[in-house]
Amino acid sequence: MATSRPGSQGRDLAPSDEEVLERVRGGEVALYEVLMRRHNQMLYRAVRAILRDESEVEDVLQDAYLSAYRNLGEFAGRSRVSTWLVRIAVNGALDRRRRRARLVALDAALTRGGPEAVGGGADPERQSARHELARLLEGAIDALPERFRLVYVLRDVEGMSTQETAETLGLEVATVKTRLHRARAMLRERLGRTLDPAGLAAFPFGAERCDRVVGAVLGCVVPERA
Fold first, then answer.
1. 117-202: which CATH architecture?
2. What is the fold, at CATH topology level, of the domain defined by 16-115+206-226?
3. Degrees, nearest 5: CA angle 197-80-75
4. What is the mean pLDDT of residues 2-9?
């Protein structure tokens, strides 16, 4: 008789993203919170990889979730829900950056004129060391050229597959592989071979910020179906 893996039953009881999305389409709007909480970390990292400005990230996340909600009917299931959401967030971040660049250029013509920390472990010294290593890693990632930074964040930080990353960014699989290889090489060169980037959780999206984004979006979408 086949046996299930430990913990597999609990995971099987949770509805898939596709099931949640269909229920939201059917009127259970409050369930949209499930999708947001599942993917806040992924979307945050993708948006931050583009903007590198904490003050704008939450606004872009909220706009992305609202845009996705208003266009639920356009999701045809040809990709994963998470890939669809990240693509919307990435496009929103790119648009925000373009608008910001135009404003900066206009301001310059007229006037002529850190990353969140992450800790680990109960030992204060070890936690402090991981804190500093994570800051080094985040700084090194921020210093990557965008085309390499975004691929690295989605693949190595967030753990998306090569195919998913390619679909999200509209790239060929071979291009994703090449950029990831180059990004890893640049990080090794910058950080030295003694620091393993995979051992640290870069750019965490804390519970308080998650609650803030989820609450803001639900405050907009729930009344729409009430």
1. Orthogonal Bundle (1.10)
2. Rna Polymerase Sigma Factor; Chain: A (1.10.1740)
3. 140
4. 44
